[in-house]
Write a structure and sequence with these properties.
With 363 residues, this protein is an alpha/beta fold. It folds into three domains: 3-158, P-loop containing nucleotide triphosphate hydrolases (Rossmann fold); 161-193 and 205-251, no CATH class; 259-362. It is built from 18 helices and ten strands. It has helices at residues 7-16, 33-42, 60-63, 102-114, 145-148, 160-169, 174-182, 185-188, 211-221, 229-239, 241-251, 259-264, 266-274, 278-293, 302-318, 322-332, 340-345, 348-362, and strands spanning 3-5, 22-26, 47-52, 66-68, 75-77, 90-95, 116-117, 120-121, 127-132, 151-156. A six-stranded parallel β-sheet has the order 1-10-2-9-6-3. The chain has a two-stranded antiparallel sheet with strand order 4-5. A two-stranded antiparallel ribbon has the order 7-8. It is elongated, with a radius of gyration of 25 Å.
Length: 363
């Protein structure tokens, strides 16, 4: 069984894997495979060429078209449109590999073996990454074990925190982030009842939520201050009725204070925070961490935000909400939130408070 990895682990594995070794990711659609791969390599200045092999009907799109060289009389392949002409290494991202036609898979085998296509070799240090879907809901092709053996195989399972951090960095509507933070089962729809309440569902047409869908919902509702019944129907068309209904209910029960309120206007919202229950402060802790790690603190206001965070944590201790403080401390140990320690370390008082609390727990 393939080893499971999250986003941080995938990025580290891609960094450690030599370019002559191929990587294959297993995972459901819409969980961010292609986006994570693109962001990793593009941040390093490499061009990523994606292919959706399940939609490719002609190998010519991948290997180029056959023609007769008039000077030699031999048949040769014209370089395909994506072929690098500057000699720089590229990344070929072969998505939906186990939906590809057999003739397409033959070309992939050649690529996986020696990084050549129709006799033409990719530039040195080029990288090949493939992605496959797994599950009974897909129409899939069994892959040749000889082909699979040419790839390092991993099950890509990004966490909810991975997506929430990505969502914060990419401006996904805060109402969606708050909802999925408190009810993460609706992020990918795992474990939810797949049949609509009406019971009139056509085979293969049941709509379930996924990460890509929630990003689309964000673009729809971003300009809307209040969501009306028609808007909820619009959301249901993207992520399904159960998820849309739960999202609507969450809007009426959202936290009365945000991470921005706490870190950027503490004195104004302190009394509101003091009315929160233990469960609400734990949820707010996660909001605060995502706000910090997502670089949402405006430039020039980091010192103000650190002082506010210190005041918030002191307030929790004054109210004997030690479980909430312990929860905040535990978040700093998670790899996803590790960058927050750089923010915290700039404040001696904040560092001392957390260190003293951690030492007290150990004792």
């Amino acid at each position: 069984m393939p080893v499971r990895i999250d986003v941080a682990e995938l990025n580290e594995l891609l960094h450690l894997t030599p370019p002559d070794q191929n990587v294959m990711l297993i995972g459901r659609h819409g969980i961010g495979k292609s986006q994570t791969i693109a962001e990793f390599y593009e941040s390093r200045g490499m061009t990523v060429v994606p292919f959706f092999l399940g939609q490719m009907s002609d190998p010519g799109d991948l290997i180029g078209l056959l023609f007769q060289n008039e000077s030699t009389g031999r048949s040769e392949f014209l370089p395909p449109y994506w072929w690098p002409t500057d000699g720089k290494p590229i990344v070929l991202f072969l998505d939906e590999l186990n939906r590809a036609r057999p003739e397409i898979l033959q070309s992939v085998m050649e690529l996986a073996l020696n990084k050549t296509l129709a006799g033409k070799k990719l530039p040195d240090n080029s990288v090949i990454v493939a992605a496959v879907n797994e599950g009974d809901e897909y129409q899939l092709t069994d892959l040749d074990p000889a082909l699979v053996s040419r790839f390092n195989l991993y099950e890509f399972a990004p966490t909810v925190a991975d997506w929430l951090l990505w969502a914060a960095k990419h401006g996904v509507d805060e109402r969606i982030r708050s909802f999925l933070q408190s009810q993460p089962q609706y992020l990918d729809g795992e474990g939810l009842q797949s049949i609509e309440q009406s019971g009139a569902v056509l085979s293969g047409l049941t709509k379930t939520p996924d990460r890509r869908g929630w990003a689309r919902v964000s673009r729809i509702i971003e300009p809307l201050e209040k969501l009306l019944p028609l808007h909820i129907k619009l959301v249901a068309g993207v992520v399904g009725s159960p998820a849309a209904t739960a999202f609507r209910k969450s809007l009426a029960a959202s936290l009365p204070v945000s991470a921005a309120d706490v870190l950027l206007a503490w004195s104004k919202h302190r009394k509101t925070v003091e009315k929160l229950s233990l469960g609400e402060t734990i949820l707010l802790n996660e909001h605060l961490m995502l706000f910090i790690v997502g670089d949402e603190v405006p430039a020039g206001k980091t010192d103000q935000a650190r002082k506010a965070l210190l005041a918030y944590l002191k307030n929790l201790r004054t109210r004997s909400l030690d479980e909430s403080v312990a929860h905040f401390v535990s978040l700093t140990d998670k790899p996803t939130f590790a960058p927050a320690m750089g923010f915290i370390a700039e404040s001696v008082e904040l560092t001392e408070l957390l260190t003293t609390y951690m030492e007290g727990i150990q004792v």
